[in-house]
Every structure is written in C-alpha cells, then in structure tokens.
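Same chain as my last thread, 554 residues:
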Amino acid sequence: MNRIFKYSTRLFVALGAGLLIGPAAFAQDSLKQATIELISTYQPKLRDAAKLNLTASLPAADTSRARMTYDIPALNLNFMYQPVPLRPLALGKDSVNALQNNFVKVGFGNLKTPLVQAGIGSGRNDQYNFGLFVNYIGSKGNIEYQDYNNVNVLASGTYYSPLFEIDGKVAYNRNQVHYYGYDHALYDYSKADVKQTFNEFIGKIGLKNRPTNEWGFIFKPAAEFIYFNDAFDRNERTFTLKALLRKQIFEDIYLQAEGIADLSTFKEKDLESINNNVVSIHPALEIAKPGFFLHAGANPTWTNGYDNTGFVKSKFYLLPDIVNETHLVKKKLILSSGWISYFEKNNFRNLAQKNPFIDSYPGEPANTRIEERYTGIKGTIGGHFNYNTKFSSIVYENMALFVNNDTDGKTFNVRNETEMKAFQVHAEVGYIEEEKFQVRVSGDWFNYRKQATELKPWGLVPFMANLNAQVSVAKKLHLTGDLYGFSGSYYLVAPNDFAKTDGAFDLNLGANYDIGKNVNLWINANNLFNSEYQRWNGYKSYGFNIVGGIMLKF
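reply #2:
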C-alpha cells in the first residue's frame, strides 16, 4: 500500500524561525511558499520476540531423616475392681447326629408269615464304607401249595482313593415258589412235583476315577458276573462288561461313549448250550444349558434275532438315541421329547423274574427291540406340586408273551410276537410338604394293537394306576398307604379262543411308631379288600394279610 503525506512549508518555516533566529525572522517576508510531498511504501515489521528456553529438572532427593521427638505424659489409671480371667467352658458339639448304622427287624403275620431283616453299616468315613443286609420272608396261603419264601443276602462297599472310587458287591438271592395254578380237582401233585427254587449269585466290581476339576475326564468301567439256576437242573451264566468314557469339551458341551457287552449261556441238563448275547456302543453328544438339555447319539447293537432267513445268531441294528428337554417356563413347564430304541434281553433269568411260573426256555431266544417316540410336559408348581405327562408311540419286535401250557395250565410257555404296536399315556402328579406329608398318584395306559403273529398280547396289563401317601405325626408316628388298580390281561383258552382276567384294586396300609431312639413298632396290612385277583391266569393272590413286629436300631 502507498500512502502520500503533505506538509505545509509554512509550519516548518515558522517553527524553525522561532527557534533559531527569534524575532529576526519577521524581516524576510518575501520568501515564496512551497509544498513538499513525500511518497513511500508502508512496510510494517514485527519486533523479534524474546524466547525463553526452559529445561525442567527434578530437585535432588532428600535422603535426610527427620527426627521426631514425642513427649507423652504418663497416665495412671486406678481400677476399683479386679477382672475375672476368661476360661472356656466347653467346645461346640458337632451338629451332625450320630448315625444308627445297624438294625434288626422281626415280625409275624396271619398267613404264617415270619419276617426277619438285619442290616450292618460302617457309618460315615472319608475313605471307605460298607454294608451288609439280610432278609427272609415267607407265607402260606389257603390254597394247597400256595406258599413261598424269599431269602436275600447283600454285602457291598466302596473304597475312596485319591484318584479312584472302587465299589463292589456280592449277593445271593433265593426265591422259592410252587406251581399251584392248576385244577386241584383234576390233578393230584406232590409238593416236590410243583416246587420251584431259583438261586442267584451275583458278583460285581466297578471303578470310577475322581476328576480333580469339573473339566475332568470320567472313566467308569464295571464288570458283573451272575449265576442263575432252578430246581429242574437249568442254569445260566451271564457276564456283563460296561465302560463309560465322558469328557467335557466346553463349559456346557460333553462327549461320551459307553460300551456294553452282555453275554449269557443257558444250559439245561445234557442238552446243547444256548447263547444269548447283546453287544452295543453308545456314542453321544450332550448339551446342558440353563433351561435346555439335548442328548444326541446313536445305539449300534449286535444281537441274535430273526431275519428273512429265520433265526440268526448275530444281527446288526443301528438305533436312535435322542432326548431333549426345553424349559418353556423355567422349572414350571418343561417340554420333554425323544426318539429312543434299545433291546430288552430275554435270557432265562429276566424271563423268570417277569413270570416265576415259566416252564421251558426257548431254544432260539430273540431279544425284544423297543422303539419309542414320545413327547410330554412336566414341571413343578409352587415348590410343592410336581407333575409329569408323556405320550408315546411304541413298536415292539420279538416281544416275549406268556401263555398257559396246554396240559394242566400250571406253567407258562414263551410265545414270540414278531411285531406289535402300542400307544402309551403316562401321567403323574405329586405333592410334598417336607417330611410331614407326601402324596402321589400315577397311571399308565397302553393301547396294544396290530399284533403280527399272536391273536392277543398275552399276559400284558394294559392299565395300571397307583396312589401313594405318607404322613408323619409328631415325628414319631409314620403312616403309609398304597392303593393299586389295574385291569385284566388276556390269556389263551384254546388255539383260537381267549378270555381275560378280572381287574382289581389292592389297598395296603402301614404304620410305625418310634418308642425312644432305638425301638420302633411297625405293622402292615395288605389287600384290605380281600380280593383274590390273578396277575397270571390260574394263580390267585393272597387275600387279606397282616404282619407286625418290632425293629431295633443301634
């Protein structure tokens, strides 16, 4: 930017004359006036700033220690009493009551029923526990040879090492019955002719590792040997080996596999031995989350059975194993569903436990394959009520059915139903009020249909219901009650004729009263309706019977 500055010469001349020559300047009035113009370009400049250079540094550390001097005046307290020294009176007692590990129970009933039970236990121990149990009971009914007796002896124990949990048991069971289900007016048998005695010897040992954390690997093998025989020179040896492997791979995901080998050999007198084997592997994945559980696996199985060519000693089956539970409303409404299939072994021991009046064992035994698809709801309400319902569609293959022999009817032959279907409804509801009061009612209904080879599902009970109640009064008196109801079952009369047994109700009541800590009086009354119903055709049950006695605990 250019700026023009104009200054009057009159001003400068006047100032100069006044300062230099004073009044003499007035004599020169004849000087001409002139104008001076100064032209220049404006260039502003800033002054150089003065900069301060600051260098920060910490002061030197003070290593000197200050010496403090305190002057606390002495204060003397004069107490007017002498304190009493503290003395512990006693150590606190353990709140856990001592266990009564042993008991003896004896009684007698109206059907010449002696009852003797005894138990011995080791009590609480961090390293081991063991127990021994002995039982004997027998009765004699109003019908000739309607008597039985039962003996049970069981010794079991567990040893806990730092790494493993080892358990084992040895047991003996003796069950004596008589074939009294014949027409006594037509046939005359001696007691030796109709007496049947089953003897069972069991030995079992198992091992389980003790994981050091919740993510640990679980290994649980077990082996069991059973020898079973009867009074007619028939015996069976069964060896079972199981091994479970389980590993947690994530917080709520598990992998597991279980192998089972169930091998049986039946021998009757000098006849050829009969083998009945079931071998299976159960791999599975489990997901366990809050409000959700899924078990997804398979069940490949090898066993004897039938195919298009007839009986085969080994046949392969690939079976489903899927179970799911989903909480629709936490704990109150749980949807339970599944698709499972498994084998029910029909060896001599299992058939005799179902029907102790079995006659002969089939020469070509086939095990029952059961396939079930089900769904239902269950849950708890209010902390006291619980319920469970299930609706199932079931398919049975090679189902073992029992029919009376065609000679005198006192024993039963085994019939093989190649395929049968059924629809099942299960329902139960219960109420629990601590240990004071409990009640539960449950029922099962089976609609057996579409038999492939047999006219009816011989010996199967299609409807069963049970009402159970327990009441405790003043912690000393304990009352129990059971009401059973069931429908009749079909039995074969002639090759193309059949009939059905009558349904019945069976009411049982019991009571026991504690006299002090070590003595208990008890009484059981069974079949109060005195109904002589028949679970198996021809075999009437005992009528009303009552048994009572005393139990000592120590």
